[in-house]
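User: Some background: our group keeps a shared notebook of sequences we're curious about, and every so often someone picks one and asks for a predicted structure to add to the entry. Today it's my turn. The entry only has the sequence so far, pasted here. Could you supply the structure so I can complete it?
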Amino acid sequence: MENNDIVIFDTENMIPPKVGNDLYASRINYANNLTNGSGPLVSIVVQGYNRVDKTKVCVEAILKYTTNIDYELILVDNGSTDGTFDYFRSVECKNKKIIKITKNIGAFYPLTKYMKLYSGKYIAGISNDIIVTKNWLDNILKCYEADNRIGYVMPMSTNVTNLQEVPNEFSNLDEMQSFAEKFNKHNPDKWEQRMRLVAVISVFKREILDIVGTYDFGFFHDFSEDDHCLRIRRAGYKLVLCGDTFIHHNHDFRNLEDKDEEQFNKSLEIGRQNFKDKYLGLDAWDDVNNFELNLIGMLKNKTPFENPKILGIDVRMGSPILEIKNKLRKKRITECICNAFTTQAKYFTDLQTVCDGNVVCDRIDYMMEYYLPETFDYCILGESINTYPTPLKVLQKLLAITKSGGYLLVKLRNTNDIRKALLTMGLFNNTDPSMPNDISRDDFVNFLNMLSVHSFEILQECSVLEPDVDEFIKNSLKNIGNENEIETILTNLSTNEYLFCVKK
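Assistant: Of course. Here's the predicted structure to add to the notebook entry:
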């Protein structure tokens, strides 16, 4: 070594880790061994860059509402110039560390530093615009401890996307805390497994960060969490949204608080493309955010099956499968077997991260060969059925693998929507090569009746027409009928897809 330096690590009082019963237990054993049982349960890290007024509210909430949990408080001043460091020095906490960065060179830089300083089994990263609430950390830890395979947990919040938001229905922080106290009741029925979680806070187990690493610094502020979530899933872990826990994000992101709109949109554009480049064409939004809320919502009043088997066909990376599973969990059906069939190989790996049954990749023509005589309680087709070359044959195959009394969820893209109307009027040029097969809703209904299914329901999924388009269509139709007839035509024109819930 240079200059004959000698580095000694004192391991005399440490015990070698034990082998676990599986990969995940072994990881936990090794991570626990590193702390030797001497550190706190949680390292809570607050990063502040100016906005000292918000920082004070953030820290005071942590001190008040983090009770009966052994934690250390790590306060990171990321180059503030407004007295943040002096405030951190004044904070009274029995187990406190302060990290001072002299110049802000990005939010990621402190992450590389304080990761080596925390000693807890868990690390909770909190930005200074977060206000925690009663039972926040206790509920999150209960979720983690329920399953070794849970790798990332996120509470509900205000001012967040990704269906993680609780509406802001309070006028001050006292009202918010009163709401949170009623909301934050431990209830595993409200936990949802997700493909992706938007970070409002970041609570991790030590072994997750040891195995997966921290954020990919190449993403800067946008899509780093999308990337991190994907890596956690591919390491074999689940992502869980704690629907029984609420915190307040004190940042009005929808009105671009502290952001320049042009720069923000440019950052999103670059980050999204970076994700596609890293994952060879996978899209962080289109391939993940296909929740199919309206389609799956048609199961709401249906009596659930015990121990059901679910099959998702062409559901991209798998969100619709998890949505069915989450809806069943709310009805206390927790034992599901999830399977997937995809015609696109790029989704195969990620479908395996959300399915505990079989995942198959092949042409849609060969789907039945992998399943019959096995059938499924719930089948969902992720793409519109008339985007396939032979949609009616696909429907027959889907019904064949749906259990008698089971449910098939399919979408039929409307071929008489506004695009076709404008095309007919010479106001729209069809450059979309994926325009669907021209099957009307009535044709599809007639075919279902021919197949003698038990019953089916139909829901129209509409888009909002632009005001000028709406006015143009109304003027074009004003001589053909009354207002009700015109509104019916407008509804049909604005229908993107017809949603079918078919009971076999």
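Suggested note for the entry: Confidence is low (pLDDT under 50) at residues 421-428. The two ends are 73 Å apart (CA to CA).
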